[in-house]
Amino acid sequence: MPDGRALSTASLLTARAMARRGLLASATATVAVAVATVCAVLGWLSIAVDGAADASAPGVPAAETAARVDAGVGALVSAAPALILLVGILAATAAAQLARLLAAAREQERSNARARGLSHAQAVRADAIEAAAVAATGGLTGLVVAVVLAVVGSAQDGAGTWLDAAAVALGFWWVAVVTSSALGLVLVLAAMSGIRPTRRGARAATTTLLVLAIAAAAFVTWQVRYARPTGFDPIVALAPTLVLGAGAILVLGVFSAGALAWARMAAARRGLAPAYPARQVVRRLPIYAVAVLLVGLTSAQIVFAAAYAATWTSMATDSAALRAGTDLRVDLEPQAATPGTVATTAGVAGVDAAAPALATGIEIGDGKAELIAVPTDAVATVVTSAGGIVDANELLSGLAPAAETVVAEPVALGADATGIQATATVQTTRAGGAAGLQLAAIVVDATGASAQVRLSGDAAGMDEGSSARITGSGTLPEGTAPWSLVAVTAAMQANFGSTTAVVTLEEVSAVAGSVLPVQGRAELSETAREQVLWLGDADDDSTEPRPVRAALTTELAARLGMEIGDSFEFRYAGSGRRGQVEVGAVIPAVPGAASSLALFAPLDVLQVSQLQRGATFVAGSSVWASGDPSADVALSAALEDRPVATSAPGVTDAVVGALVPGWWIATAGSVVLSLIAVFAIVQTLALARRRELGVLRALGVTRSAQARTRAAELGGVIATAVVVGAAAGVLVGVLIVPDLVRATTPGILALGTGIGIAWVPLGVALGAFVLGLAAIVGSAAVGVRRAAAASTVGEESR
Question: Start and end of every ABC3 transporter permease C-terminal domain (predicted)?
Fold first, then answer.
């Protein structure tokens, strides 16, 4: 007999909640997972920024480190919202579906309550109170989970104390409030929006969503390639969400069309399967569509996260290596890279080889470019390969001298040489003019580092007339033996007026070595006070300086309209010095250059080319070394605490690189959210289809056959969503991941790098997701088998 007593508000809420505690528990878990994921993502990014700020590179002032951290934070402002939006959208979709399922399950009890006098306003108020309780419980639980995750993460990383990690997580309490409140509102609105969409309406909505999503995705895909990490950019913030959302809608469209086509084909076949499960999928397409949307979006996100992780790591590492040009680089300007400096670098623990390098600006016509040069022998030992972008063999082939180009042929001093001595005769137009003459030798050591050795002569050996014989000697500086002689020069002091001197180099020998095959002659005057007496080149007395073979970047060659074999002149920026280049190779990027407009030349040949045009040359301004990038601290200390650039990503990259774990944290949350929602959908479908089981038993379908049929039905739907979603993730990765990396990471060079895949994390994440889905399908099949055993024909007939 019905109870005639009126229900109190509390009793009504308690009774209706206990009746649907399974769905409410799923909704609470959805809110908790969403809150925990969002707080964990933001907490991780916050900890990463603090950690980068504390890790100052050796030799870099604290103010510069702070500026680099700020640059990374500016990039995160655009990139981080994408992670939150994806988790929020997936959680809101799951919450909305759970609310609709809850409303559908309560359809009969709502009618009974309305018959007993429950008004529409009271029903809405009851739904709002219930949603608030779910949101509050889920939000608090999620915040607690986020704190626990932060503490566990700090224990694993050894970064700070667990109290610090917990404080960081608790600092995002307001995020938990906002997220849980938003999901609570979604629960209320979804419950009020209707529970029985028609098949035609679902198809129309799907078509409309697909068109709008593809249009929005096409727009952001077009725009993101022009974005740069200069602050908040809404295109960058929305691009992953919109494009992945379009991929998920595309998955839904493919599934809907495929399900309808399969149902028609299956209907023509005899037997229960596959006609029965195919028809059931089409009949409940609106509910299945939500599961497909969630599973497809999650699968696409997993693949996208794997693509972003591998592509970012590759592009950031390759860009850092290309910017440095080598494993360890120390810029010495305004000082030069002396043989002693290079030798000191080579002696640092962790350094395998060292060489001088020149990095300077040049002007080509009205344009500007960058010139990078290292000794020919050092290309294979110190120049980075940057993940295979730089091919040392190809580079050396392009730098190899050709006909009518400069060839460097220094003369070896011998392994035991400690100095150099030269003898020259001087004919002057004024008595005593030889007294102002200074001889010098330009030498290079085994690393290619050059130095000028002044050859001091004995004043007693000079006569008072217009001719003299000068013998000068000098000691080799600190460096790496063996040494080679590049040139011998003569210079006349400026206070000798219009004196003209003809200097003939008669003999050059190495101290503790042998006589060298070196001779030369030059005329010094008021307008040419310094001249090269002898130069170690292969020039056949040509009066015209020859060009240097060099490699140009693809962009510079295209801008100049140059091909291999063409030549052009250039000017060294800030000086009147000129040079000439013959294009020997066109390469994607020049190691050590900060610009895509650059050329690479052999330093030893370049210095010979400079000496062909005058008696001075530009020495290397940097030291490049190959070895372990972690040797930067020791190298900085050895070179008077100078900043050391390495081939590893820097502070700014470390800040932006926190997005890689951030994507995986968000993806893990999305996997759990999808599993909760799919489990709730499957359980609701099982309750709604209990009446089918007895009828099928009456038709002779065993309970095991029913279980297999239901497993095939659910497994087919979910497997299709996983496969098509993963394919959509690959498509999304190809479309936007490289451009997104450039748009979110300062200093990424235009390398033409395609996407990569982090296969191990991808396998773990996708495998865990598939196993979870398989467990849901298996439990549903077991439930069908048990329920079918208890169903009776009489019950179903009534």
Answer: 665-789
